[in-house]
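Input chain follows. Return structure tokens only.
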Amino acid sequence: MLYYARDFDDEKNKLYEMVRERQLMNERIAILFATNKQVLGFAQGLSDIGIEVEIPPHHVKNKSQRPHDFTSSRPKLMAFHSAKGLTFDSVLLPQLVPKSFSWLPEEKIDTLIFMAITRATRWAYFSTQEDDPLDALEKIIPVVKSGELKRLNWKDHNRKVEAPKSLDDDLDFL
């Protein structure tokens, strides 16, 4: 699912809604971010609304905290580079805006997004802001058309439109 948010608050609230939805489905959830600062900020935001999360031990003051408990249902928040080699039922990728990746060349951003998508075994969620989307999101559309992504629900906040029955159909609903 791709969500174009009106602003940061809209994006944040939609992310929280998606986390709750995936938890109700009893899925293993990862929320991946470009920076460690985002991990901490969103961990606090989720905690503030009553969603318990796990973050890597190097992010917490209590250094005795164990690594992620992959048997728990708590969402795992981490930076993209920390997710290599891991898989989750659902992977949520918020804050896909240029500012989040300003320190990386475009080809590295593409690699990170691809790596993040491949962490999901069932479902992936992408969010950006309509006035500042990440260019790499436009590169996903040809992958969809090629059929490499088999199941897809693309939506935006204005039109809740399901993916076309045929991937040959125009993708102008995005």
